[in-house]
Amino acid sequence: MVLGGSAPSPYPGHSPASREIQHPAKELNSVCNLKENSCGRELTVTEDDSQSSLIQLFKKKKEARETEKAMAEKEEAFRGRMKVIADRWRDLHAKRAQLKAHKHEELRIQALKVNSKQREEKMKKDGELLRVKMELETLRKKHQKLCKKVQKYSIFKKYLEDVVEEPCAAFEDISEVTSQYKLLVRTRKDLLQSQQGHKQLTEQDKVLLEQYKVQKEAEMLQYKTELVQLKLRFYQAQGDLPLWEAHWLWTIKLAIHNLFQSTNTRLQAEWDVLECSSCRQLSLVEPSQKEEQQ
């Protein structure tokens, strides 16, 4: 309930009840007058009641200020916590980005390692395949050599087959069988000796051939070295040729000039010839030399 005029409140934000308590004596008197007029009873207000009202007002103001201060402190603390949370969230995003980049880097390194390992395995397989191919080529060559040997010694197989297939009537006598056996043994021994001799000769021929190859390779290397030295000397001579030509040309010019000077002095002739004109000097000296010889 508001009494009196609409006076402005010195404390903004408070209710009309606070404005009512600001002038307790006047407002209480007004209330008392109204009640006396309406009810016919008298109401007295003591100074203790007004003082208690002021004390309550001050307490409420103090509580309001403390509440505002507490709210401000809580708001400041809330802002601080929000800032800390924002910083932590930013750090979390940065760490997540770093973790993602680190994970990508680890995946890239792992992929490079796998690629390198696959490349090494491929190189090993290629080397193994090349080795197997070389072994196969070696075995093929050995097979060809053995086939040639089989064809070479096939005549002995045919001979033995002819001997075995002969009728038993040819060996009616034991002495004939014995003689035939001895003949076969001698023939086998001769064949083995002949084969051994051919083998030794073949090995000797191989050794001689290797020695001949080594000797010829050494000679070829020596010839190549000499050829390189001759080429170097030829190139050096080609490089020195202009120097020698210039030297001899200068010597000839100097000799012609000296001859020209001596002839000119001896004949006391005054020939107007340039010093650098060697051909002109020689053409003037030649007639005088011929006259002196005659």
From TrEMBL:
Coiled coil (residue ranges): none
Signal peptide feature range: none
Pfam families linked to this entry: DUF4200 (PF13863)
Keywords from the UniProt entry: Coiled coil
InterPro entries: CFAP_domain-containing, DUF4200
One GO biological process term: spermatid development
Start and end residues of each DUF4200 domain: 58-166
Protein name stated in the entry: DUF4200 domain-containing protein
Origin species: Taeniopygia guttata
Record lineage: Eukaryota, Metazoa, Chordata, Craniata, Vertebrata
